[in-house]
Amino acid sequence: MLDTLYPWLKAAHIAAGIAFVGGLLTGSIALATVQSDRFPTPASTAFIEVVRAWDRRVTMPAILLVWALGLTLALQGHWFRSVWLPAKLVIVLALSAWHGVQSGVLRRLAGGASTRGGRGSGAVPFAILAAVLTVVLLAVLKPA
Description:
mainly alpha; elongated; about 140 residues
């Protein structure tokens, strides 16, 4: 039964991953933009609320699906003994943790915290892309 569902589970896992990464990138770019000195504060509050709504409605459900479907696929494929899967899980765990940090910053900004600061936040989207590229390469190539 699960063998016939495997392609559907995999497709859903990939789709959820795309939604999660899109939301993660959106949040990171939004934070970098709002925390720069070029964005007016009244507009940034409305912008942050829109990003937070997307995060709650799309990104959060997507991350839950990524984890649930990914673990299901890993169990079905008996991949927990492989070297590539724990490496992939560490990176996905780091991306999940970053999402938690990012959500907290967005919540504080929506509550009226200062939008200034966040030095180096412009590099975060590039780090996310590098992590996602590594995850994709590990999943596709399945080394060792």
